[in-house]
Amino acid sequence: MTSFGRPLTRNEDPRLLRGEALFVDDVELPGLLHAAFLRSPHAHARLLAIDTAAARARPGVVAVVTAADLGEYWQPGPLLVPPPPVPGMEFHQRCQVPLVRDKARHVGEPVAMVLAESRYLAEDAVADILVDWESLPAVGDLEAALAADAPLVHDDLTSNVAARVHQARGDYAAAARAAHLVLKRRFTYDRGASIPMETRGIVADWDRRADRLTVWDTTQAPVVIRNGLAAMLGLSERQVRVVAPNIGGGFGPKMMMFYPEEVLVPWAALRLGRPVKWIEDRLEHFFATTHERSQIHDAEIALDAQGKILGVRDVFLHDTGAYDPYGLTVPLNSQCTLLGCYVVPAYDSAFTAVFTNRTLVTPYRGAGRQHGVFVMERLLDLAARALGIDRAEIRRRNFIPADAFPFDQGVIYQDFSRLSYDSGDYEPILDKALAAIGYDDFLARVQPTARAEGRALGIGLVCYVEGTGIGPYEGARVQVQGSGKVSLATGIGSQGQGHATAFAQVVAEQIGVDIRDVEVVTGDTDQFQWGVGTFASRGAVVAGSAAHEAAKVVRAKILRTAAAHFECAEADLVLADGAVTVAGTDRRIALGALAGLANPMRGAVTPGTEPGLEATRYFGPASGATASGVHAMILEIDRATLRPTILDYVVVHDCGTVINPLILAGQIHGGVAQGIGNAFFEKLAWDSEGQLLNASLADYLIPTALDVPRMRLEHTVTPSPLNPLGVKGAGEAGAIPVGALFAQAIEDALGLPARDIEIREMPLSPSRLWEITEGG
Amino acid sequence: MKITLRVNGTDHVREVEPRLLLSDFLRHEIGLTGTHVGCEHGVCGACTILWDGEPARACLAFAVQAEGHEIRTVESLSPGPGRLDALQQAFQDSHALQCGYCTPGILMTLTAFLAENPHPDEAAVREALSGNLCRCTGYQHIVDAVLRVAAA
Ligand code: FES
Ligand code: FES
């Protein structure tokens, strides 16, 4: 039976469950040194002097490194994502530095690195370092940062503007003039953090005899790290091996590069000739690992009397933090994803990215899509209310019709291609969601009954699209081993997405082996050295397609080799259960033996013959595959505490062909849980000096098992025409619409529309909700 | 100072600093890296071990304090090389782990929980689980795994 599409349990689990799997901090090497960092206590301060003498003198300390010690190696990091080719765009590249040299731009920016015989000693020595700071006023608020007299994050710029991008199509002004209704509102989305359970870490080992550097790194992009490190350190790529072993959650911030520690730890290992380990502690993580999500939108929607959208205008500010190495991926995603599932004849969107004295902003699960969905879905809710149209109905009226795909949105997307939806069919998703949550019954019966009992129950229902599976490319090498097992190597890393199983299913489908006999290797540049990384829900789509293509070639080689061996036609062969059989006979050869035949040790081969049963293929989609879905939920708000309890949660999702429904469910559950955190628990709180006030897991609360409800999932399938598997990514879908959903359901539960109160911000909390609803 | 710690039924003698955390002792002194650390301030539960049979945070104890106590880590759960116990198997069957970083701590919490409550309902499972943070799964499949064991 084919394994593709079935809910198979995972290949990677047994080792993880027994505590045998390797994570970065599990790497132990003889002579290992430990790094610890002195970090800026100020959000904005000039570094006047630094005295490391006492730290250097502490027994067990091997070295203390400051910016001055780095010499020529001190360079701002590379620009990871260049700005998009949008005409008239303005972009100021200011990338993070390895160690503060003249001024610190956010709390937690590294100032000095201590290397010692243990982490305990290294931290002791960090406390010995004396720094003379001249503290400067900090900018955090986006609008204040743009004031004429605002302190400058980068002194060589004339303002804190990092970028300005304007994209427009159609004539919004004309649409607004012709409209029956124009609504204008301000929406804000504040900062949160991804909080993988494993923090970042890196171990570097320079082997003098092999002339090679090995680096274990909690990165989502090992190949890119290897290439960058080689360039920085003056080595050839072949001299650097980067291993991203098991990674304890990524969610985007582990895609960021180069973090200062990533630049410094390998350098120290080379310089000192000893292996070096640095593991981020949770406090450091809150300051030093990237965040996401502050944006302020001033948005406007124009509609006709039937609720058809005529146009949308949006002007927004995006907080990029102290530096902008990740370019404009996040605000571009916001700009593009706002269009959602809808036909928007005129669209005018302009954003300004702003430098602030805060931790850098780079993509975190959703990567700006949340904001776009929040703004559009909120505008539709308000429009529905103003026009007396049902919430579901106004969405249905504006859906891109099923026969309009591929649908060109006419704006430039984060992959720099024109945003075009490959395929989709939105009404069946909405219908399924309405049925599953019992929408009509809830409004007609359940809610009024609950209200009569004094209970505040509300329903929410929002739609979204997710651009997934973008290029440029990934590759995969499939090889039949002498053992009869099949190996698959690819350049991406895995952070829990189940690649070792999903890719095995793709390969097993072609090669006729049990998925337990497919050994998937991800995240080791010695095993596969081309690739880009795990981001934008692209692993299954792009690397999965490459695996499929490579496996197809290996299948052909298997049949060709077996046909020659048995002297029969390929059509007479059956490839199944790890062997090739001549149909209707007992003539059979196991794949391992066949692999041996394909690699002769003596004699001549036909010219052009390649040894082995192996193939490498690359896949690069022309553009991304657009997944879509609807989330619906019923929640109850405790009127006394304003704490929400989710009574029912339904996700109907279309991510094209499904490789493994069990893994897909897990991705969606986890995404929704993060979405819930982002909507109602998680907000990084700062004071006016740019100090983060809740930098611990005791203060920054992520959802527990008591906060995340049981979710019910349903699917529709609209295969993507852009890849051979028909798949679309699913990694971020769970998280994207949850903020908009909470806002709508809370308004409904508390009867806020009747009181003219609107929820236009995320994240919320019981106290913030009280301020909004009770006018605090 | 010199201590002898009994971990998974074996005595380990080491010279340690008094301030060495039990989590660091387990991971870096005796190589039991299955116990993970996610916060080192007692909140996330990734470092949960059994201390005389009771779940405890290895990051909140010094190694020296564990002398004379029976410590169990995730490495002790498997009934034999390459095998899984019933709870571990249920985790695989229910897809109760993604990155697997939180998993060892959760397994230890639930091992103790199931020993005392062999047939819990969902609400009790969620309550028991609420001291362990998982950022990947949304908990639903973890709850399913426990209910699967409870039903067996
Ligand atoms: S590491 Fe011990 S509770 Fe988080
Ligand atoms: S599986 Fe990743 S934190 Fe739980």
TrEMBL record, chain A:
UniProt KW Oxidoreductase keyword: yes
Gene3D superfamilies hit by this protein: Aldehyde oxidase/xanthine dehydrogenase, a/b hammerhead, Aldehyde oxidase/xanthine dehydrogenase, molybdopterin binding domain
Domain Aldehyde oxidase/xanthine dehydrogenase a/b hammerhead: 18-137
Keyword Metal-binding: no
Entry keywords, A to Z: Molybdenum, Oxidoreductase
Transmembrane regions: none
Protein name as catalogued: Xanthine dehydrogenase family protein molybdopterin-binding subunit
UniProtKB/TrEMBL annotation, chain B:
Pfam families assigned: Fer2, Fer2_2
Residues covered by the 2Fe-2S ferredoxin-type domain: 1-77
Top-rank taxon, per record: Bacteria
Keywords assigned: 2Fe-2S, Iron, Iron-sulfur, Metal-binding, Oxidoreductase
PANTHER family for the chain: OXIDOREDUCTASE WITH IRON-SULFUR SUBUNIT
UniProt protein name: (2Fe-2S)-binding protein
